[in-house]
């Protein structure tokens, strides 16, 4: 029967699938101000991360 001669290892399979994630991920809305921001990073406009003020910005 036709088939691959050798089994694809978990490692090789993982390397191939490393390119499978869809483009455009890594961006979301800020929980505080609703501005678009990069995921897992502090919001550049209000300085919030995980609903907490991390960096002091001018709010006056
Ligand atoms: Zn924000």
Please state how the strands of the largest beta sheet are arranged side by side: 1-2
* pLDDT < 50 stretches: none
Q: In DSSP terms, counting alpha (H) and pi (I) runs of 4 or more, how many helices?
A: 1
Distance between the termini: 74 Å
Descriptive account of the structure:
This protein has 60 residues and is α+β, with helices and mostly antiparallel strands. The chain has a domain at 28-60. Helices cover 13% and strands 17% of the residues. The chain has one helix and four strands, in the order H-E-E-E-E. The chain has one helix at 10-17; strands spanning 27-29, 36-38, 48-49, 52-53. Strands 1-2 form a two-stranded antiparallel ribbon. A two-stranded antiparallel sheet has the order 3-4. Strand 3 and strand 4 (52-53) form a beta hairpin. The model has no long low-confidence stretch (mean pLDDT 86). Bound molecules: zinc ion. Zinc ion binds at residues 30, 32-33, 35, 43, 45-46, 48.
